Amino acid sequence: MCSRTTFHPWAKSEARPELYSRTLTTPEFVLAMLNEYALGQSCPSLGVTVSVDRSVPSTLDIQTLSSRLEQAFIATRWTHPTVAIQVRGSKEMIYRVHDAEGVATWAKRTVQYVEAPGGWLAKYEQLSREAVLPTAIGDSALLHLVMSPEQASKSQITEFDLLLHVHHSLVDGAGLRTIMNYILTELATSDSSISFSWGEEGDSLQPAALDAAPISNELLKSLAQMPKEISLPPLVKPDEARRGTGVVTYTIPNAHNGETEFLSHLRTRARANNVRLAATIQAALVITLYDEVKPTEDKVATVISGVDLRARDLNKPWGERNRFVGFAVGLLEIIRTPVSLLEDLEGEERFWTVAQQIQNEWNAVSERQDVAALGELRRPATAFVLQMALAGVNKSSPKLDMSVNYVSDPPGDNQFDGVYQDEQSRFKLARYQLVTDESTPRLSCRSHSWNGELVLGISFSYKHHTRDAVQGFLDKWARLVESLGQSDTTGISGDVTDHNDS
């Protein structure tokens, strides 16, 4: 590996106010085109519920909270100017420098207050039907404060929701969690008297993941010779109105069915069978999918997953905790499980054989080098990827097949501090969920752990599925996982009525 030139550098204009711009990497371009032509497909949002410690003697009404949240988002822009980047023409990112007044105007526009029952999830489902980033004025990141009517009327708020919605070319799931953690930190310590030297934050604009990654000399040459323009056939946006994305979740508490330390017990069982927790949960997903679909023609079950480059494939300091917020997902990996394994085996033997097969596939993935560069070199396949995605959006069949998306997010405390406080405020992150817009028939499944609990979630297209059907599928997946975490595992038949380890 060696140092080398930057492929997507930030360029600073000479005119004032300054404007920074850079071209999109291949993965960022694909996401921008999906956002434009496939109804925001795969665009991420992060919803959190925050509790307020009543023992702290400070008043927190809706006006105070809204004002402090704007200040927190301004401070976030100073450290992570990504939240104010715009995606222009699906070809480049731009960051416009503003003075303090302009930044305050931006914050009032992008921090939006909503009073409605149903919390952040109801607001998210509304946005999935009505909004695609960027907004008409060009904003590519929005922060929503969502309050129940009961809480909004209180002079002392005890709980509130936040929903962070950002263009996928700018961030991935890990980036959203880092940004939200920073927002919560600043919300607890917000000081309106602090001033910023606006313009200097341009120096904090982060590189593209490709330019933060190690690349071998061989692939450096290939990247240098790669055509810069991406040739695309005519693309047509779907005619019909967006039906929106639904989200269902299932939380398995740490004390479950009389068992304590559920997650610890589940990890112990996984290790005893030479697999990690993520492969264990993925195996439960594959078995549930097989038992639900009962395929007659499919020869393999496929799980499509993205790999976070931060842990192994970004140079220092970008791989450090909560440092890189940009899009840093490597190649989409397709983990294939032969249907014969699911047909020919039963019970625990079937489960752990499938889990070991999945773990072996992930072990092979972890040995790959130059992952960021390989993603960039897939530029010639961009047209095919977009056409396949649009075909999925236009597909009318509601029937499940043997293919799903699955991401095992890292434990929440890898990125969230959990408690945010100063002398006047104390906030606690009660729960969170990362969701992605889904316009195709494929289910987008995720898992993460937080406060000792394991959370499973599924995003789905309302055009292709009903909430009840997806909830039923999720319940079966969750109950199979639950059976694994119990001392008595006689119920592990598998026929039960957002890569990182969770």
Automatic annotation (TrEMBL):
InterPro entries: CAT-like_dom_sf, Tri3/Sat12/Sat16/Mac1. One of its GO terms (biological process) is mycotoxin biosynthetic process. Keywords: Transferase. GO terms for molecular function: acetyltransferase activity. It comes from the Eukaryota. It holds the Pfam family Tri3. The keyword Transferase applies. SUPFAM superfamilies: CoA-dependent acyltransferases (SSF52777). Belongs to the trichothecene O-acetyltransferase family. This is Condensation domain-containing protein.
